[in-house]
Fold this protein.
Amino acid sequence: MIRFTSAIIDVGRIDGVSGNWERILHRENTMVSYEEIQMLTGIQACNYSAMGALAWTVHEMAIMIQREYEEMWLKPWSNLKLLFYFLRIVNLGSQIVSMVMSLRFAAGYKPTDRGCRMLIGFQGTTSAALVFATQFILLLRVEALYYERTSLRYILRFLFLSEVILMTVILGLSIPRIGYGIQCVALSFPYMVAVFFFTPIIFESVLFILTMVKFYEAARDGWGRESVLSRFLQDGLWAFALPFSVLIVNAGCTMFLPGPKSSIAYPWMIAVPGFAGCRLILNLSHLLKTTPPQHGLTSRATGLIDTVIETYQGSTGGERFLLILWLLC
């Protein structure tokens, strides 16, 4: 908690974008303006939020270490394993880098305008990469559910690629237009940033609706009684809800909160997609680990899927679904 007394703090000069500032200690009868108080409390709230996101990430990694050891460390390298470690490293690494920079700022380091843009660009790029990676996992899941709908799968791939291109362009155009304060905290955002948040919201909503449609069909046809498929569909609920909520909150903060508080939820744009993606991969790995031995499959060629579907026409829906998902992954 910040206490303002007659002999404590003068936040000095805040020079708009460049963020040049200084503290003058032990000056008597120092007057602190309302804007300066708002600036300091906003920066403090952002730092608390970043520390909370980092602590949550470390806690999640600690409680999942045994399962990660069994599902990832002991298994040979695969596409899912590579994606898992990409999410882990980018998630934790980007938060540590941001926290180290915040500590340097608190110790008196004065960043340049170029340094602030590089830091914000780094945070934006890593958060976008984590969102894309998590959505790619969700896309694989939906493709497995609708594998016989070839046109739908191609449409979803086109939408995903369009989202990646649009968000990348918006990020590149927005960074030079972001206003910075002390400690490189973003104070204002261009209106196009709203597109950066709402684009993944729209795409995830499409994936969620498709998952719910299949959930209804599974319940109607009796697949929902199979524990494997039921667990898979349930994962789709929280994997959508968490990133969706974070995107909505960040969009609201950037549009409606003033000053530094507009960035208060952004650390969770890094923490939550990384968490959701890793959990989805661990759950997928657990579901798929018994599939290859049961059916003696040794190749992952996509062309085998049609043969698998024909061979297991008499199998349950969950078994056919797992075979398709295993080959896709």
Summary: Residues 143 and 153 are 6 Å apart (CA to CA).
